Amino acid sequence: SSVTAGSITELRASDGATLAKYAVGAQPYYVLFDGTSIWVSVYGTQTLLKLDPADGTVLAQVTFDFAPGPLTFDGTRIWVALEVAPGTMVAVNAADGTVERSVQTSDSGITGLTFDGQRVWATDYFDNEVKAFSADTGKFQGGARGVPTPLGLYFDHGRVWAADGQSPTVTEIT
Questions:
Q1: Sign (positive/negative) of CA torsion 146, 137, 35, 55?
Q2: What mean pLDDT value characterizes the chain?
Q3: Contact call for residues 99 and 48 (beta carbons, < 8 A)
Q4: C-alpha–C-alpha distance, residues 131 and 150, integer Å
Q5: How far is residue 102's CA from residue 67's CA, in Å, rounded to a whole number?
Q6: Is the Cβ–Cβ distance between 71 and 55 less than 8 Å?
Q7: pLDDT in tens, 99-129
Q8: Secondary element (H or E) of residue 140
Q9: Are strands 47-51 and 58-63 parallel, antiparallel or unpaired?
Q10: Contact predicate 139/157, CB 8 Å
């Protein structure tokens, strides 16, 4: 996404050629595709946008009291970490854009989210933890302590990985 231009850019995977640009508002930070629609967290307007990938038409807009950050998709819901609301993530119904629940994960910032097929994993950057929550209920289900400054998360269909925000390493969580 282009932060200064307030747009996201569609690129052709084979060669990186620009195919389209869609205006989304000030400071788009994270982009996610759920298999049907494109979701964009727009920091500057504190909104989450659902876009039609064919033409960039806004299909739904969710406005928060805090700026939306990292995103993940659990097959039904888009999970959004709220940037200035420490340790808060919100589940948004992917079909209609309604907010289903808010989950308090910690007292510090969430810098990464991922989904492993059953649980949503969230970083706890300042406490050096990665925590798992049920995607269905939002209840805490364990995690890993002592993960150095976890910044981003990724699930590779077998393991959860955390990027260290202060060194060139990744840590296998599961």
A1: negative
A2: 92
A3: no
A4: 11
A5: 14
A6: no
A7: 999 999 887 788 999 999 999 999 988 888 9
A8: strand 140-145
A9: antiparallel
A10: no
